[in-house]
């Protein structure tokens, strides 16, 4: 199957063919079954303190004030980059996905996000599917008070729902997003998934698979911080796109410009390892097959951009 082996319906057979330590076996089985993996004390407190002192001034004093969230601070701070490319975490991801991991986006939060249930697969998907995951690092302890993470164990096995599935149109802003969140909440409830809240210590790491439904609990404790970093990862050898902004009906994918945080280099889209050229036409970045010629390329662009199919 063209899927990560930990997501394969043939996982049990594949597991027999792997030469793993008991600890590795436990990790991959848990990830396969539950869709997440908790690694306790996997990031040094020294690195976390360095990151906190770098980014502290980027945030307002109080919960609710903006900006509560910063995307891609890795471009500015080496400590954020280091958190996103921890060798030991990369090794665990290689074990789980058997492809080279690509950290491509960081989000740093001072306060709990209180985000409603969602799967990251609405924002980031790949072809072949599911070569994506989130890695959440606790930069301080999370408790019932400061808006800890929650997830629905085993929800990763569900279909990757997109806007088309629930009858709303692709969009660049977030106007329709609450409809998607409502759908996900209702779907979890109607299908018997149980929400679990997780409390973590500074230095603990949670890996969630691309389609695990998760979010942030309400902040109950008033003006309390919840410093955290999420890094989103892709894996080599895929096409990378954003379902939320793609027209899934006509298969017009909003391809992403992916930069590998660990190397600073742009990542080549590819079809099972064969390079795919892409053309940025504004809203959509079109894919052109790996064996294209100039006329084929022109034809594709003309057809996609003005909807006219040239007779050559
Ligand atoms: O930190 C949180 O509360 C949730 C973050 C999240 O869902 C994400 O970054 O994908
Ligand atoms: Fe998320």
UniProtKB/TrEMBL annotation:
Please name the InterPro entries in this protein's record.
Phytyl_CoA_dOase-like
Question: What keywords tag this UniProt record?
Answer: Dioxygenase, Oxidoreductase
Example of a GO MF term:
dioxygenase activity
Needed cofactors: Fe(2+)
Q: Which domain of life is it from?
A: Bacteria
Q: Name one Pfam family in it.
A: PhyH
Q: Does the record carry Chloroplast as a key word?
A: no
Question: What is the protein name for this chain?
Answer: Phytanoyl-CoA dioxygenase family protein
Species the sequence originates in: Spirosoma soli
């Amino acid at each position: 199957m063209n899927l990560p082996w930990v997501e394969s319906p043939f996982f049990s057979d594949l597991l027999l063919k792997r030469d793993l330590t008991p600890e590795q076996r436990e990790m991959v089985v848990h990830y396969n079954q539950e869709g997440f993996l908790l690694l306790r004390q996997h990031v040094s407190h020294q690195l976390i303190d360095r990151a906190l002192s770098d980014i502290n001034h980027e945030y307002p004093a109080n919960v609710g004030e903006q900006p509560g969230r910063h995307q891609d601070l890795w471009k500015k701070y080496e400590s954020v980059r280091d958190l996103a490319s921890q060798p030991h975490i990369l090794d665990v991801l290689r074990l789980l996905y058997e492809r080279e991991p690509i950290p491509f986006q960081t989000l740093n939060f001072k306060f709990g996000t209180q985000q409603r249930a969602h799967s990251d697969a609405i924002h980031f998907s790949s072809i072949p599917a599911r070569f994506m995951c989130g890695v959440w690092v606790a930069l301080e302890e999370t408790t019932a008070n400061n808006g800890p993470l929650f997830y629905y164990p085993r929800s990763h096995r569900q279909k990757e729902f997109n806007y088309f599935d629930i009858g709303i149109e692709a969009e660049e802003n977030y106007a329709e997003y609450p409809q998607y969140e409502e759908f996900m909440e209702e779907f979890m409830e109607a299908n018997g998934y149980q929400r679990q809240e997780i409390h973590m210590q500074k230095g603990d790491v949670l890996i969630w698979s691309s389609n695990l439904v998760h979010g942030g609990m309400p902040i109950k404790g008033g003006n309390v911080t919840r410093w955290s970093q999420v890094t989103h990862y892709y894996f080599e050898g895929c096409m990378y796109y954003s379902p939320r902004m793609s027209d899934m009906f006509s298969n017009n994918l909003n391809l992403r410009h992916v930069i590998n945080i660990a190397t600073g280099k742009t990542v080549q889209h590819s079809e099972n390892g064969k390079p795919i050229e892409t053309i940025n036409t504004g809203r959509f970045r079109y894919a052109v097959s790996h064996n294209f010629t100039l006329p084929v390329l022109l034809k594709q662009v003309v057809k996609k951009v003005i909807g006219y199919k040239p007779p050559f």
